[in-house]
């Protein structure tokens, strides 16, 4: 497969490029003072070199970010699956406002190159639409960017949201907008998303050429031969509807076993999101009677939490303790490091 091919309708920041001119531009970007521009230039050079592979780094949500090799052929397949699923056509406009150091940002460029999108690239800041007045057919953001961009989101027709869970408070705000918003499911190993759902839907739907099953832990197993040569075993507990649809319940490594009852922190977090404005999460901390106890950990200065915060929870879901942490540790992509923060709280209690 010829990686040097650029779709005839592709444009970057309003300008068309031949392969040679595009590589010249990449060399200019690699000399930039801005880290994301240097990364963008290197991405172009890596894409157009002779290697059939590209090295990408995982986000580091559950551990140290690690490099993995992905076939460029599989990246092209992923790009085509995305443009097909979201009905994107050549000359559609797209916005890249995520770090190109990670797979989500890289794939926005590859989709544009493969499908002839007109791509604008701007700094991956928390309120990206503040620095462009253009309208877009397609964009991808993390929830923090979505929250900060709410007054301007009407300028985007289709928006995919990934990288972290979308809380119900933000979901309700988005439902009042004309933008069609999707939550996506995927990981670096699946070359971004392999499933998506409109934010008002309960079930994720598979992208083309993807099927699902579950293992004996009730965790999702992904069969996506166009992007991975082997089955991908996840740690995500799901309710499998059929081999193309599932409802995401939570991470198996987050599940709390309290007095023999299996509790999903993510379910509790969805309910409490309407009451708590700061970042927070539910953890299972050690307890000599229950094994684990439901614990609420909130970012920021301490304040009073009254019982009415928990009136919508079952008795066994109600937090037994509440802790405040000055600042949450997070990954470079903004995901909360639950395990690291929980261990900090445990050490402080000893």
Automatic annotation (TrEMBL):
InterPro entries on file: AMP-bd_C_sf, AMP-dep_synth/lig_dom, ANL_N_sf
Keyword entries, A-Z: Ligase
GO function term, MF aspect, one: medium-chain fatty acid-CoA ligase activity
A Pfam family assignment: AMP-binding
GO biological process, one term: fatty acid metabolic process
UniProt keyword annotation of Ligase present: yes
Keyword Ligase: yes
Record domain AMP-dependent synthetase/ligase: where: 49-224
The organism's place on the tree of life at top rank: Bacteria
PANTHER family on file: 2-SUCCINYLBENZOATE--COA LIGASE, CHLOROPLASTIC_PEROXISOMAL (PTHR43201:SF32), ACYL-COA SYNTHETASE (PTHR43201)
Descriptive protein name: O-succinylbenzoic acid--CoA ligase
